[in-house]
Design goal:
Blueprint lengths: L37 H9 L4 E2 L4 E2 L29 E5 L4 E5 L1 H5 L5
Antiparallel strand pairs: 1-2, 3-4
């Protein structure tokens, strides 16, 4: 029986190291969730709620956010999430980007 070494790609969160898994059943063994190219892995995570800033990749718990209205930046901390701190996250399906509102702008009902 012959064997070949193969290289596969799997995105991981640059804050917590959690691996991206495309199917929920893979979370029991996330090491089997892999793509043949970085581009394929990148496309898969963009279709879910992961964030890619070009320099780094973040799971939904560790987005790097700037409020779309006032420009306030969220100080990323591995122990808290945007939801914990009252940030609202919207999704622009046209360009697959996230739209963030800080707690002040979200609670004031401000719109862009």
């Amino acid at each position: 029986m012959g064997y070949k070494k193969r290289t596969y790609w799997q995105p991981v969160c640059d804050t917590c190291g959690y691996p991206y898994v495309e199917q929920p059943w893979l979370e029991t063994d996330p090491t089997i969730a892999a793509w043949p190219t970085p581009a394929a892995a990148h496309q898969a995570l963009l279709e879910d709620d992961w964030q890619d800033t070009g320099d780094a990749t973040y799971c939904p718990s560790h987005y790097h956010a700037t409020c779309a209205i006032c420009g306030r930046r969220h100080p990323v901390c591995p122990d808290t999430t945007l939801d914990d701190e009252g940030w609202e996250i919207g999704r622009d399906d046209m360009d697959r980007t996230n739209r963030f509102l800080c707690p002040d702008c979200a609670n004031n009902g401000q719109e862009e």
